[in-house]
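Mods, move this if it's the wrong board.
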Amino acid sequence: MQDNLQAVTVHTSKRQSFLGLHHIGEKVHQYQRYLNDIENNEGAWEVEIKIKKNDDLEKILCELQSFRSFGEVEVSQTDLAINRETGVSRETQVETRNQFYIDKMTMHIETKREDNIKKNISDMVCLSGGRIIVVEYESQVNLLNDDGTRQKMLLITGKPHSVAQINKDTIAITYSYMEIIKIFNIENETVTKVIKVHNYCFGLSFSNESLAVGLNSNEIRIIDLEGKRIKSIQVQNESYLKFLVYSDNRIIYSDRGGYAVNCIDGSGKQIWHYKQDLSEPYGLSADTFGNIIVADCDSKTIIAISKDGNASKLLARNDDILYLP
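Not the wrong board. Structure tokens:
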């Protein structure tokens, strides 16, 4: 692809160069998705095969009948770290690429279920195996199968608000207007740890072996799984920090009262601030490319915002959703 890039940029017209770069960009996008799938699903390995030659080759020819081995084959498998550069330095291509991702995004409602859900849903998360955790506001926590049917109601006491997955069988939960986070094993239904944060905690997200939690309306705190504070980031929000996404050293949070979605880095520096077409942003989610999906409650819409905050697309409106998302 590097050879093709040189040929496209040196030996062709500007128009042909642009089309060629666009084609190469699509290929890079395809390969990057493949690498993401490897990282997310099964990791990667480097396999080295070594063959050791038998030095007694002359003797082998004379004693062929008594010879039992031509040598040894050794196969060793070691973890391989995938280091790739995902940034693009060509300024003219960055906006085109992000716009391309957003423009190609679509949303289809596959199924609708209302079984056993009695109250408003305050949070939900899709587990790595396809099952779904659904938190009924200050009520119960449901574990659903991948088809939406309820597998069981988890034995979680208190008034749960937000949930985040830590690993295959473990979740973290915050409680409305309480100052604790509970780590919960969903298989044996036991609380394995209680973390005290000494402030009302709401939104919750997990990344890089640490939790990001929204405290009141003015602080996002990063803590490890033992409860140790890693950093505190002060923010200006007009509503409680109920919804946030922590990924790739970025934190995206919705400000329902300020009609905005904000993105900051790990130091608290603002990366982007998005207000266009938002009337009451609630739930947030990120796709594998870092684009943000927003449930805008008042307008009954689902909106996608590009990773850099410069582009957006309406994915679904009230005719498709019917309820307040």
